[in-house]
Amino acid sequence: MLNFHFQPVIKNLGFIIEGVQITFSLSVLGFFIGSFIGIFIAFGRRSHNYLLKFSCSAFIEAVRNTPFLVHIYFFYFALGAIGINIPSYFALLIALIIMNAGYMSEIIRGGIEVIKSEQIKSAEALGLSSFQIKRYIIVPPVLRVVLPPSLNQFAISFLSSSLGVVIGVKELTWRADFLQAQNFLSLESYLVAAAFYIIIVKMTLSISRFIDKKAFKYKVTDI
Amino acid sequence: MELISGVNLKNLMFMLKIGLTTTLYLSIIALVLGSFVGFIIGWLRTIANEFFDSIILLFVDIIRSTPLIIQLLIAYHLPGFLGFDISTIMAGSVVIVLYFAANCSQVVKAGIDSVAFNQWRASKSLGFSYLQQMRYIILPQAWRAMIPSYTGSALGIIKDTSLISVIGVIELVRSGQIIISRTLNPLPIWFIVGLIYFIICWPLSKMSKNLEKKVQFGKK
Amino acid sequence: MAGKRILELKNINKQYDNLHVLKDVNLVVEEGDVWAIIGPSGSGKSTMLYCINSLEPIQGGEIIFQGKKLSEYNKLEIHESIGIIFQNYNLFPHLSVLDNITLAPYKVKKKSLNQCRKKAIELLEKVGLAHKKDAFPHELSGGQAQRIAIARSLAMEPKIMLYDEVTSALDPELVQGVLEVIKDLVREGMTSLIVTHEIPFARECTDYCLFMEDGRVGESGPTKQLLKNPKNTRTKEFLEKVL
């Protein structure tokens, strides 16, 4: 009935782990560069300059309402056709950066809106320095609001990197796919890759829960 | 112009007729069946004891923590491994339905849990049975809380149907690829494919934001 | 007041996990009696109310309602006959005031909708809020919401009303409005158990007073007497703190 042969797959664990490293590097770069850009887009959406506001909103809506797969194909194939040849790794990376920028900008915007000017004014009136205000009044509530969805977005981004397989990026899913084409043990190969994803995603979410419990025991409410 | 060669009416009609209809078909199946299954699982989690809840959560977690593409690839190879025959689109649909159901179950459980415990107490004191409590007091409040996450997941699954192209099903993305293989001009095609997804998704996301606003202010 | 015994608590004991929250609580309530239940926080006053209307189970002792053991009634009968008002009113936010009041009689007692609506409007007039029948809970002040909560419970035509610190969450100027409604009900003969911190109200409106501390009955007796000359030292201490 169910005859699993994990040995041949485990033999290639080193090969698979190289894929994990590439997946990880892509996810981390994509997430942090995307978040960085996302900060500007978040502020851009709140600006009074109509053109800036519109472009940022348009960017966000374009990214959020089209499939990630299409982004990848676009950057790899479509741009390639008009002479902009982007290697597969970078095509995936750009797609990840753009996706993260689009989603993180909304999360960051939520963080910006948590800060109420009255709180800052009261803090100033109490004599707190600019640094103290940032450290005690601004940063904690913002982190509380921004950290869980950000970690969630990182997990999503991590899982999305698996689409690199369609353009030949040698990340984790590609490694599993490559192995199963050789040893015909498709189920075992994919399951091993899945195990890596599951472990890393669960770790990310545990970190999120841990931070939530430890660092943010108070509730952010309107006072 | 070279940029838009290949974008003729025949190709577009092909893409729309076969590709778009399959995408819409997959999306609707996923949304309807997935919501139903997801609702049941989410609801069960609210009444189950710790042991069963952790078992359900284990399955849900695994489905949500594995890339959809790997689940589709497994679904592609699994029937052969187990020895029975099933069409690719069927296997892929099952995966997509389960994936969306897993996401829905989280949304549903969070929504039901978000209703204040006092509402349970007050309604119980007035004599409502559990089913009456759910129907008249709890669910009407829970679904309002569910709207943002649910529509986010729903939009996600509509876009995620594109992944089934990787195992050979001809939906919108795959139909685009087929056209490109003939015309060798990817740029306008990918632009149009993106545009079609945008036309489907953006209005839905706008409507959900409006719905959110409408039921929010005042009711809570 | 000589009358039929409507409620009896015999040696009630209750535990929450390892916390013994009610210890050998005894109480006899006759029809028409109005009891004030006072005492420090955490003394088990609210818990006792929840046990009476079977929201919470008891581990020891018996509750006898209308001559029958509470466990022999089905849940519906208990909730129809025993009404409870919570500190946080707990109105249903997604329903209008009118719907809040008609929902239970309509769906639980299965009366006709017209009948329920008529009764609801009568009750709204009684609590002075008929003009708010189409409003939603978030549009009401705390005092108004609490009065609607009372109307909602009355719609089920209970024989006893339990009040769990119903004015504690209200702004001071809204408290009187709610107390007036309770006074009216008392005047009409509604058997009532009122957990409260409002000692002047207790002195004015209630017949008997129960002082609870640490899950036990410290003292019980006619209100005026207990408040003027408490026999128990703890009662004395509590009253001195509060008055």
Topology readout:
The complex is a heterotrimer of chains A (223), B (220) and C (243).
Chain A: H1 7-11, H2 13-46, H3 50-64, H4 68-81, H5 88-114, H6 117-125, H7 130-160, H8 172-183, H9 186-215
Chain B: H1 9-47, H2 50-65, H3 68-82, H4 88-114, H5 117-125, H6 130-160, H7 172-183, H8 186-216
Helix pairs in contact in B: 1-2, 1-4, 1-7, 2-4, 3-4, 4-6, 5-6, 6-8, 7-8
Chain C: E1 5-16, E2 19-30, E3 34-38, H1 45-52, E4 60-65, E5 68-69, H2 75-81, E6 82-85, H3 97-107, H4 113-126, H5 142-154, E7 160-164, H6 172-187, E8 191-195, H7 199-205, E9 208-213, E10 216-222, H8 223-228, H9 233-242
Parallel strand pairs in C: 3-8, 3-9, 6-7, 7-8
Antiparallel strand pairs in C: 1-2, 1-4, 4-5, 9-10
Helix pairs in contact in C: 3-4, 3-5, 4-5, 5-6
Strand content of chain C: 25-35%
Could you tell me how far the N terminus lies from the C terminus of chain B, measured between alpha carbons in angstroms?
57 Å
Flag low-confidence runs of chain C. none
Largest interface, Cβ cutoff 8 Å = A-B, 40 and 40 residues
Number of domains of chain C: 1
Query: What general form of chain B does the structure show?
Result: flat
Largest sheet entry of chain C: 6 strands, mixed
Report the total helices of chain B.
8
Oligomerization: heterotrimer
Strand content of chain B: under 5%
Query: What order do the strands of the largest sheet of chain C run in, or round the barrel if closed?
Result: 6-7-8-3-9-10
Helix content of chain C: 25-40%
Q: Major beta sheet of chain B, specifics?
A: none
Structural summary, described in words:
The complex is a heterotrimer of chains A (223), B (220) and C (243). Chain A is mainly α and 223 residues long. Chain A has helices spanning 7-11, 13-46, 50-64, 68-81, 88-114, 117-125, 130-160, 172-183, 186-215. Chain A has a single domain (16-215), classed as Orthogonal Bundle (MetI-like fold). Chain A has nine helices and no strands. The longest helix of chain A has 34 residues, at 13-46. The mean pLDDT of chain A is 88. With 220 residues, chain B is mostly helical. Chain B has a domain at 22-172: Orthogonal Bundle (MetI-like fold). Chain B is 82% helix and 0% strand. The longest helix of chain B is centred in the N-terminal third of the chain and has 39 residues, at 9-47. Chain B starts with 8 loop residues before the first helix and ends with a helix. With 243 residues, chain C is of the alpha/beta class. Chain C has a single domain (5-242), classed as Rossmann fold (3-Layer(aba) Sandwich), CATH 3.40.50.300. In chain C, the strands form two sheets. Chain C has a six-stranded mixed β-sheet, sandwiched between helices. Chain C starts with a strand and ends with a helix. The mean pLDDT of chain C is 90. Chains in contact: A-B, B-C. The interface between A and B is large, with 40 and 40 residues.
